[in-house]
């Protein structure tokens, strides 16, 4: 009976190690600040955002739109921007993320995200979830916000300059 118990415990421990060890590699990989860098497709997969270092923080820029034009064929421009001088710039190429800093392993906060659709700027927190990002935009209180899951953009997603 004791041999059976020990054998069961050892087999169980070995099986658990196989399950835990791949996860440990993932956790180690996610402690690297550069893991949020790169191109990401937003929640509805209609916008690609590049996240990159800028000073001591991270920033992000729209670098692809599935639909860069309105229905009438006019290029989407930043017409809701509170600064009238910026209202003629195209959405594609706008810096929308600023001040994003690593808070702890896998969590980035203290940033802001600009939404050209409504011209508002929101507080931003990003949490790494495996191969995706859990992106939360909110106004002051995290409870009052919206969360999207962003995934890495495939290599074949063109950039702004490749869209006519």
Topology:
Blueprint: H1 2-30, E1 38-41, E2 47-54, E3 57-65, E4 95-104, E5 107-115, E6 120-129, E7 132-138, E8 145-152
Antiparallel strand pairs: 1-2, 1-8, 2-3, 3-4, 4-5, 5-6, 6-7, 7-8
Largest sheet: 8 strands, antiparallel, barrel
Could you say which overall geometry the principal axes of the C-alpha atoms support? Answer: globular
What sequence of helices (H) and strands (E) makes up the elements?
HEEEEEEEE
Number of strands: 8
Strand order in the sheet with the most strands: 1-2-3-4-5-6-7-8
| Rg from Cα | 21 Å
Helix fraction by DSSP (H/I, runs of at least 4): 10-25%
**Regions with pLDDT < 50 over 5+ consecutive residues?**
1-31
Structural class: alpha+beta
Number of H- or I-type helical stretches: 1
Mean pLDDT: 82
Q: Oligomerization state of this entry?
A: single chain
Distance between the termini: 74 Å
């Amino acid at each position: 009976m004791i041999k059976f118990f020990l054998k069961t415990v050892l087999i169980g421990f070995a099986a658990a190690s196989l399950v835990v060890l791949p996860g440990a590699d993932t956790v180690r990989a996610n402690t690297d600040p550069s893991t949020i860098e790169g191109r990401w497709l937003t929640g509805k997969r209609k916008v690609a955002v590049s996240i990159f270092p800028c000073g001591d923080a991270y920033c992000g820029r729209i670098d692809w739109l599935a639909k860069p034009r309105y229905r009438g064929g006019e290029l989407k421009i930043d017409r809701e921007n509170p600064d009238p001088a910026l209202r003629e710039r195209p959405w594609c190429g706008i810096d929308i993320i600023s001040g994003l800093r690593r808070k702890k392993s896998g969590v980035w906060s203290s940033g802001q995200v600009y939404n050209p659709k409504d011209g508002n700027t929101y507080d931003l927190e990003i949490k790494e979830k495996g191969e995706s990002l859990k992106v939360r935009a909110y106004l002051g209180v995290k409870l009052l916000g919206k969360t999207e899951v962003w995934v890495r953009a495939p290599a074949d997603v063109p950039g702004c300059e490749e869209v006519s």
